[in-house]
From TrEMBL:
InterPro entries: MFS, MFS_trans_sf. It comes from the Bacteria. Residues 394-422 are annotated as: Disordered. Signal peptide: none annotated. It comes from Streptomyces lonegramiae. This is MFS transporter. Residues 400-411 have a biased composition (Basic and acidic residues). Keywords: Membrane, Transmembrane, Transmembrane helix. Gene3D superfamilies: MFS general substrate transporter like domains. The chain crosses the membrane at residues 17-39, 45-67, 79-99, 169-191, 212-237, 249-266, 278-298, 304-323, 335-354, 360-383.
Amino acid sequence: MAAGYGDLLRTKHATRLLVGTLVGRLPNATAALAVVLFTRAEGGSYALAGVLSAVYGVGNALGQPLLGRAVDRYGQPRVMLPAAVLSALAMAVFAVVGLDPLPVAYAAMLAAGLFTPPLEGGLRALWPGVLGREDRVHAAYALDAVAQEVIFSVGPLLVTALVAFWSEAAALLVINAIGVGGALSVVLSPPSRRWRSAPREAHWLGALRSRGLLVLLGTFFFVGVALGSIGVAAVGYADEHGGGMVSSYLLSALGVGALVGGLAYGARPWAGPPERRLRVLVAALALGYLPLVLVPGVVAMTALAGLSGVFLAPALACVFVVVDRHAPRGTVTEAFSWLVTTFVVGNAAGTAAAGPVMELGGVAAGFAVPGAAGLVALVVLLATARFLTGAPGGAPGDPDVSRAENDRNRAVEPGFRAGRQA
């Protein structure tokens, strides 16, 4: 396993792109915590901190696909670096001005989220050109999914360290300056500067005209709901089982499970169409959430949380492959950005839903939300399977042949003239 990943990371530019992207995403990974800490330090309430974080999240959800489409049209350096600088400047305004006047704080949060560069989608668009072979690209997607777990674990620790040794405002400024440095490292790399999207068919929907992509977005919205609800339910469980670090035990176990599962998944080649494999992985992910409703003692619950995370990173790695295959020609960065947005919105919806459910039915009901969301994700994927499979490239009616709407299919979108840009 280690040898395979080592070979991948020794590929020219691969480590730089992966590390630069992770560093560039630090501001996004830490925004919620950093904003809450700064707002409280400025005398604001938790309610205000939550609203400001939500404004940032809304801006992020709106900005990712729009910036992704701009990257597909104009290239990575001309979009990502200015966006990173503008996002950091907006967060700097928030850190300097504080909560007074409040409209400036809201505007700064909206701008910071809106201009967050689509580094995730950009990296996934670069992997095929950097790594070449399909099996290595699949392994890179798995490593990418694992790295997300690492960055969302390390980022909050860095914020709390900066707050402890300096201040809440300094944490905001330093984290965002580091993020600009990560984005700069990516866009100055030769693969990023050389990369150009394939010519695209003109359509105002862009990537969303792909029925296969819409299926994936619907599925992973509910996966996001599951993850968001687990975080809230874990806090409720901790309140009933001694408080303190119990919730962090559960969430850390979930992250470790995802890390182990992702590394194992990417360490071997997989035969057959990824669309079929995705259905199996989402089914396993949904089933992994169901035992959480048993709410046993802390040790057993921590083990169940770890088990529930095992198939998360493999499912993400597999959906990255399927998105790449079904994104319409010339829209790959936008398509990946839509996946990020949908996942984030689902996460927020799960967070909002779990609290009221838990108040009505207790902690077990709170943990029923991720189980139910996982099952709905599976139902969506199974009910719409015909949009992810088809006959092009193989025998008519062969269910094992991907419909793959990307330019690898060399199919012209009906109703539009080739050569025009959306």
